[in-house]
Design brief:
This protein has eleven helices and seven strands. It has 331 residues and is of the alpha+beta class. The protein has two domains: 94 residues, Nucleic acid-binding proteins (OB fold (Dihydrolipoamide Acetyltransferase, E2P)), CATH 2.40.50.140; 188 residues, Hypothetical protein af1432 (Orthogonal Bundle), CATH 1.10.3210.
Length: 331
């Protein structure tokens, strides 16, 4: 059976395909009848599904994070497509192609990692050099760093997303840092490379992207500082002031208490890191929302809750993520 993807669904069509169950809840209508509410996904997008008949029987057949093959009709509710599921069966992982369900960066992962290492080689401060080398010789870290998403939602939500976001931020440090007096460029580059590494421990990326226990309890900012501090303590003689400056940049890179930063940026490098990180995340989030809705006839996207606005779509988005520098031609 050929996979039918979320972005191929049209109102009024019948569909038979496999989807990943991201969320599942048994609830009741206003008249008290039970029904199943599902949040389904594949690598192209997500949509809601409903099981109105025999919900109690279907509820026992599958769980969250299962793959299910459904026979359904494509309806529309409040302007959004929704599946009215008539039949389903649980599928084993061996029956599906996992690449159909986890989206991946459009760029070449090995080329991006090589470019980050090339930029890291520009760092001349000897202890920052040793610190970066400690991470780039850690095979377990490298494996996770290459594969992790940058977030569970909003920006770079795909395999290789963390690597792509990190490279973009670090490239921005090369463009912006030299424009201002008093910037410690070695510290800024190092901070850019390391600012989100805690996400390799914060997020899982098996069947779906979700939070680990430490991700929920501590968050990636604290996990990042813990990982960096562990490497620093293994480097004899690492200057205390340099360690404090680096860890301050990492702790403050979200910029505001309301956005999860334990500290506000108090140094030039911390201020720049915050804005460059925020810039890349927001631009990617905008582009992803535009790409998601490029097939819709309106020049405006639907309302984006986190950005708190509608977004005006350019006439031809093409592939908004593709550039020649790291585009993946080997996938």
């Amino acid at each position: 059976m050929e996979k039918v993807f979320v972005n191929q669904l049209k109102k009024g069509h019948a569909v038979e395909s496999v989807f990943l169950v991201k969320e599942k809840s048994l609830t009741r209508t206003k008249t008290g009848n039970p029904y199943l509410s599902l949040h389904l996904a594949d690598r192209t997008g997500e949509l809601e599904g409903r099981i109105w008949e025999n919900a109690l029987d279907f509820d026992t057949l599958f769980a969250k994070d299962d793959f299910i093959k459904v026979r359904a009709e494509v309806d529309e509710f409040q302007g959004t497509l929704q599946l009215r599921i008539l039949k389903l069966k649980k599928c084993e992982e061996s029956e599906v192609l996992l690449d159909d369900f986890l989206s991946k960066t459009p760029f070449n992962i090995e080329k991006m990692f090589s470019e980050i290492k090339n930029i890291a080689s520009r760092v001349r401060q000897p202890y920052l050099q040793k610190l970066l080398e400690a991470f780039f010789t850690d095979e377990d870290f490298i494996r996770k760093f290459k594969m992790a998403p940058a977030a569970k939602g909003v920006h770079h939500v795909y395999i290789g997303g963390l690597l792509e976001h990190t490279l973009s931020v670090v490239q921005l440090t090369l463009l912006i840092g030299p424009r201002y007096k008093g910037i410690n460029q070695d510290l800024l580059i190092t901070s850019g490379i390391l600012h989100d590494i805690g996400k390799v421990a914060e997020l899982t990326f098996g069947r779906a992207f979700d939070y680990t226990d430490s991700g929920r309890l501590l968050g990636h900012i604290i996990l990042t500082v813990e990982m960096v501090d562990e490497k620093i303590r293994a480097l004899q003689g690492f200057p205390e002031t340099l360690a404090l400056s680096l860890k301050h940049n990492l702790l403050s890179h979200h910029g505001e208490y309301a956005f999860g930063s334990p500290k506000l940026p108090m140094t030039l490098e911390a201020l720049l890191l915050h804005h460059l990180d925020d810039l890349d995340a927001k631009v990617n989030g905008f582009l992803a929302w535009i790409e998601k809705e490029k097939g819709a006839p309106s020049r405006w996207t639907s309302y984006h809750k986190l950005f708190d606005r509608f977004i005006f779509k350019p006439e031809d988005t093409g592939n908004p993520f593709a550039t020649e520098r790291t585009e993946d031609t080997e996938k």
